[in-house]
Design brief:
- The protein has 3 helices and 11 strands; from the N terminus they run βββββββαββββαα.
- By secondary structure, it is of the alpha+beta class.
- The chain folds into 2 domains: 36 residues; 143 residues, Alpha-Beta Complex (Nucleoside Triphosphate Pyrophosphohydrolase), CATH 3.90.79.
- The strands form 2 sheets. Strands 4, 5, 6, 7, 8, 10 and 11 form a 7-stranded mixed beta sheet that branches. Strands 1-2-3-9 form a 4-stranded mixed beta sheet, with no helix packed on it.
Length: 185
């Protein structure tokens, strides 16, 4: 099946988001309207710390206005610019939100976020060799709380609904597959 764009118009724009409405034509000539939310690239970071006591992750808890609740998730975000170096973005978001710097950043992959509605790419990074420093949060991040949890606890949080962010769950799944295959190499 192919869909042809007949026309496209922007219906809303702010510093973070653009919304457009496209008139489309499907195979067979049937026309319709498609709404598309466009956002600049983002990243999600898996800050993994391995110690003698085990493996730990650094998570963020913050209020998410769209669903009117606080949630726990992996550090993530964007800089509202299309031309951004993904690793620089990942390092910046990690430092801004958690105060952590990483000795090693490994790109695990790229995902589209909710591509049935939105056009936004997310780069997934593993951060290792962590060093603690100062945060540099945006105004919107005033209520962030950093949590350090064992990997097993994070996985329980995904299963019991304390982590409901699909990007965090998808990034963790990608990491688990990457790690399993790396171990077999």
């Amino acid at each position: 099946m192919s869909i042809k764009t007949i026309s496209s118009r922007e219906v809303y724009r702010n510093a973070w988001t653009r919304v457009r409405e496209d008139v489309i034509e499907r195979d067979g000539g049937m026309r319709g309207i498609y709404g598309v939310v466009e956002k600049d690239p983002a990243c999600i970071v898996i800050p993994l710390e391995v110690t003698d006591e085990g493996e730990f992750l650094y998570l963020i808890e913050q209020y998410r206005y769209t669903v009117q609740r606080r949630f726990v998730e992996l550090p993530q975000g964007g800089w509202e610019t299309e031309d951004v170096d993904p690793e620089e973005l990942a390092r910046g978001e990690l430092r801004e939100e958690t105060g952590l710097s990483a000795e090693r950043m490994t790109l695990l992959g790229e995902h589209w976020i909710a591509y049935g509605v939105m056009r936004q790419k997310m780069y997934v990074y593993l951060a290792e060799g962590l060093t603690h420093g100062e945060t540099d949060r945006d105004v919107e991040e005033h209520d962030l709380v950093v949590q350090r949890v064992r990997v097993q606890e994070f996985e329980e949080m995904i299963l019991d609904g304390r982590v409901m962010d699909n990007c965090s769950a998808a990034a963790w799944g990608l990491y688990k597959i990457w790690r399993e295959r790396k171990g077999r190499a």
